[in-house]
Amino acid sequence: MQKILVARPIFPDVVDRLRAHFEVDWNNGPPLGPDELARRLADKDGALTAGDPIGAAVLAAAPRLRVVANMAVGYNNFDIPAFNAANVLATNTPDVLNESTADFGWALMMAAARRISESERWLRAGEWKGWRHDGFLGVDIYGSTLGIIGMGRIGQALARRARGFGMRVVYHNRSRVAHQIEAELGAEYLSKQMLLQQADHVVLVLPYSRENHHTIGAAELALMKPTATLTNIARGGIVDDAALAEALRDKRIAAAGLDVFEGEPGVHPGLLAVPNVVLTPHIASASETTRRAMANLAADNLMAALSEGPLAGRVPNPINPQVLERTR
Ligand code: 8YV
Whose Cα sits closest to atom 4 in ligand 1? Predict the structure, then answer.
């Protein structure tokens, strides 16, 4: 029987699905460090991960490994050139999380704009003594301009929701999306600089890469309107968190909503110290339905990649499909 590692706690019934096909080593505890990961992968044919860093050193310690299935759409935790060099297939879980993640992007953006966390903290602290005309004044969503940086599947799902809010939608992306999609979404392409200058609410939903490191830093924050909000549901490292904390402290922008952080689960102390930021622990895809769909899709990818039978060659979401043509 082939052996696999499930590197994280996931839904037990998904582990049971895998146990029907494989001998499963399940880490149902805290994330494994690189040494322990390498040790546990030494005799494995496949692995299911969720954000665990896998690079050349771990792959070198796992001579039998043929596939690593990430329970995430983002795969910046994988060193793909190292996977290619080692002939190991990488897979991810796109699409099943688009709508939940877009819902959450809106929730964060609206919570930041309308000061929901800040006012709730104040209420819970017993500070509410009566209605005030100027209590927790925020910025409007309806009729404002939404600026989306990263117009992939989740970016498009965000844009579709803007219609009901009567918003102008502008976007920036590595490359312009097809005219037909722009027309359907009513979305207008702008340079990053123009988007930052014009948007009332900027939402980041682009994949992390070296080129996207600090896409938003001090210079970009300085371009934004003082009434604008910034929401990051993409990846830590896309925003310079120290620069953002300063901009929020000095009210150079109105507010921010952050689900991802540089060095998470650590959070920059400057962000913890300012009231005008809504902070959530990387949960944009975390609805029961979606997280189950992601876990099952990661398992489907793993089973298909390791199958000798009819599933072989029908891996749903290969990231580096060229590896499927080779053998290890
Ligand atoms: C994952 C995410 O839950 O899919 C992604 O890229 O950021 C989340 O949906 C998280 O990355 C755990 O792997």
Answer: 72
